[in-house]
TrEMBL record:
<dbReference type="InterPro" id="IPR003439">
    <property type="entry name" value="ABC_transporter-like_ATP-bd"/>
</dbReference>
<dbReference type="InterPro" id="IPR052156">
    <property type="entry name" value="BCAA_Transport_ATP-bd_LivF"/>
</dbReference>
<dbReference type="Pfam" id="PF00005">
    <property type="entry name" value="ABC_tran"/>
</dbReference>
<keyword id="KW-0813">Transport</keyword>
<dbReference type="InterPro" id="IPR017871">
    <property type="entry name" value="ABC_transporter-like_CS"/>
</dbReference>
<keyword id="KW-0547">Nucleotide-binding</keyword>
<dbReference type="GO" id="GO:0005524">
    <property type="term" value="F:ATP binding"/>
</dbReference>
<keyword id="KW-0997">Cell inner membrane</keyword>
<keyword id="KW-0029">Amino-acid transport</keyword>
<keyword id="KW-1003">Cell membrane</keyword>
<keyword id="KW-0472">Membrane</keyword>
<feature type="domain" description="ABC transporter">
    <location>
        <begin position="2"/>
        <end position="235"/>
    </location>
</feature>
<keyword id="KW-0067">ATP-binding</keyword>
<dbReference type="InterPro" id="IPR027417">
    <property type="entry name" value="P-loop_NTPase"/>
</dbReference>
<protein>
    <submittedName>
        <fullName>Branched-chain amino acid ABC transporter ATP-binding protein</fullName>
    </submittedName>
</protein>
<dbReference type="InterPro" id="IPR003593">
    <property type="entry name" value="AAA+_ATPase"/>
</dbReference>
<comment type="similarity">
    <text>Belongs to the ABC transporter superfamily.</text>
</comment>
Amino acid sequence: MLQLERVSLSYGSFRALDNINLHAGAGELVVLLGANGAGKSSIFLALSGIHRTSGGSMRFDGRELGGMKPSQIVQAGLVHCPEGRKLFPAMSVEKNLVLGAYVHRGDRAGSQRTLEELYQMFPILREKRHQAAGSLSGGQQQMVALGRALMGRPRALLLDEPSLGLAPLVVKQMFEVIQRINRAGTTVLLAEQNAYAALGIAHRAYVIEGGRIVMEGDRDTLLKDEGIRKAYIGG
């Protein structure tokens, strides 16, 4: 469903991605592991059309993404939930959520159904729907960010560091929700530093260092790899 071949991306003279090759099949949950600055977010920014690549090919369902506008990419079914949540803190929870359905503004009934499904998934957001998003706890704000992405009705979801800054119990709950979304049929590409939690729900994973893929494999292979354990898990 999602295919990157020899993708490169530069910020001025800095080469953030260097000949990246990766894929995520329909219904897969694929994890990107790497330290800060490794290139995980750059992959997502390239896929979502925010930063232009300097080489290679990115395809979604066989359709070339290069040159497409971010709104066209969302309409195609590929939706990005960014690192750091990027909410509008002074706006209400519900307004933040509804913004995620902007590309489907001609289908208000469908967006309302999706919103109701989100409130069933995250009951606390229904309770706080009229509160400013910035007044919520970190975990609740992450729910809003994820919910906003789901309002775009993705067939493939790009999740960038959803556990960042969250308490362990909230991380566990968030990963259970991500796994549920994937099991319902949505392909997920998940960038994470929390390797143990991410690999626990993944089908496959890639390790990125210095803008290059240095390892790939199924979850059990990477969990057993001594180098991965020392670098990302411990012990």
